[in-house]
Amino acid sequence: MKRINLPMSLSLIAMAISASMSPAFAEGYGLANAKRDKVKLDKWECKRCVVEPGLTGSVGAGIASNDGSDPHFANTTGTDQDGVTGFVQADGSYISESGYRTDFEADKLGYDTGSASVSTGRPGQYNIALGYRGLANYDTNRALTPYSGSLNLPDNWQTGATTGQMTELDASLKPVELGTKRDRFNLAANYQGSFYKADIDYQYEQRSGKRKFSGNMLTNSAMLAQPIDDSSDTLGAKLYFNGDGWLAGINTQISQYKNDHQALSWQNAFSPTFGAAYSGQSAVAPDNKAYRIAGNTQFRSGSNQMLMHVGFSRFTQDQQFLPATINGPTPDLPQASLDGQVDMIEMKLKYTGRITNEFNIRASYDYRDRDNKTQTASYPQVVTDSYFSGYATNLDYDRTRQQANLGAKYRFSRAVYLDVDYRYDHNTYSDLDRNKLNESIIDAKLNYNINPQWKLWLKAKAADRSGGAYVPVDTTDNPSHPLARKTYLADRQHAYYALFASFASESAFSASANIHGAQDDYDDTLIGLTKVDSLGYDVSMHYQANDDLTFNAFVNQDWRDSDQAGTSNFVSPNWFATISDESTVLGAGMAYSNLLDKQLALGLDYSFSDGKSDTEVTQGISTPYQDHYAKRHNVNAYADYQFSDKFGLRFDWIFEQYQDADWQNANLAPDAIPNVLTFGDLGHDYSAHYFGLTLSYQL
Q1: CA distances (Å), 275 to each of 322, 326, 536, in order?
Q2: 13-17, 63-67, 144-148, 595-599: which has the minimum mean pLDDT?
Q3: Is the predicted pLDDT of residue 327 greater than 90, yes or no?
Q4: How far apart are CA 58 and CA 53, in angstroms?
Q5: I need a surface site. Which of 290, 348, 580, 614 has the fewest CB within 10 A?
Q6: Is 522 helix (H, G, I), strand (E, B) or coil?
Q7: By the 8 A CB rule, do 695 and 649 touch?
Q8: Cα separation of 635 and 630, whole Å?
Q9: Which pLDDT score, from 0 to 100, does residue 45 have?
Q10: Contact between residue 569 and residue 535 where contact means Cβ atoms under 8 Å apart
Q11: Could you report the per-residue pLDDT of 660-683, keeping only the tens digit for each?
Q12: Are 217 and 387 in contact (CB under 8 A)?
């Protein structure tokens, strides 16, 4: 256990802060100019800063039961395993007599989202760490499909021109679970010398699961459960040197992605419209590699600081091409593989400085260039693996971005300061509808500390985006409408404002609140997104009734309205859509410790969230879309009982009630659409409980 002389430590910290923040005009009085040769360092030794060797911390094991039949509940609990699940908990460290330190940690190890890590070394010199973390996203187990895991149909399958004519469909349907799981492993080491520091880090991640995919065959489509089996390796290294007022270093990174599947192939559930298209094939994410090298320098003199960064990255992909089609004659490909290469150059300069005690300035310049060096060629286009529609040339989509920033902060008094920032963003593109795009952005913050308890600050932002002539690209089979504007390329005027307030009394109560809003106007857009308005507020409170009992509560609401115009005759806008989104999140909780002679701690939290979206399309008459919402109630409670100095027992309970609806698939049967074989209704509607029991031991 490490004990620190608090008054002496605070004095040392205060001296360090004062030295680092000394103004430029106080030359000769900085720490760097101190006469250190006669300082008696032994007098500064902290006699009570003793690190006691030995093993400290706790370890534990637990079991949990999850009664949720819908795997979506596992996004809250971390596991979707049926029945009783075991897990391991740990948090501790070991310090040897010679000063070596080993830290270890485990959090619900045994769950899909469990984690564990261990690190060892001599603090301040070197360290080696090994870690594992599980990540998961659970979608549904209600997807219904006649396809097997290899995307083949049953032997007795009867194709049909429509889903209603598939006579074996109902008998062949079986559920398939959609979701992804990741296992991430890390190995890292660092070494610190007197004037340099070296780091190396390796990460391996493996991903598995299934996700939604649409297999198209001309005018027919089938929803498929695409298997996911891929991995990525990333190796990074850093080497930094430091001196009096400067720091310089280099860092590199190499990564590669490998996909165990080279293609996605499936049988056609429909009767071929023409020809013999009894199966389909689609490319999947190809194997690829990337590497990056970058250099960084930092110089500091008094209150002035300059940072410089230069980096180069290269991305390559050389996966063997699939044939243009597996149905009918196969058009010749121009080459066996893409042999793709994209280079990126980045450079950044940044300066910060203090002109006076009240006035600070900052400036930066950021340059990024994306250069696609992949050879262009004419590739045959086979639409939905069914018919040949000519050739198309791959485009470069190069981009150069330059961003200049200038900011200043002025403190009028101890209570009031103003921070203003201006940014100019200039982009040039190739092969897009617009080859130049510029944006000017200015934002400001006015802070006012009314008194030690009350603080107010106002934030505002304005941006104006415009650019070169808008010329729809004609190098694709489906050129853009001349009046249509892509959202990320369109002229836009943006405004944002927010008012914040916080209160912290000398007693046990504190609170904060803000109200914020924004407007986006696409004034020159006739077809596309034309307007977005948003408004919201946040309120949170915390109250400590005494040393053992605390309460907290919060509420947040946001509203967003957007307008869109479209055309069905490729001439002028003739339909209009309004989308209204609303979200509400609120919660409250309490924690009570030191009950039953300081052996029991209790906690209870409740949260509620409700999000919904309403869409209405007007084309002569107004047509509102059906329900699109998600609603969730969650209760999380625990009881932690320490029945001896060494042993403790914790009980956790989670209750969740969740319901959502999406008009796109609400109450949708797999054969509801004649030319689309769907997964059915993928909505969620459940009430589920989680019970966990953990036995811990203090080391």
Answers
A1: 21, 12, 57
A2: 13-17
A3: no
A4: 16
A5: 580
A6: coil
A7: yes
A8: 17
A9: 57
A10: no
A11: 998 887 788 999 999 999 999 999
A12: no
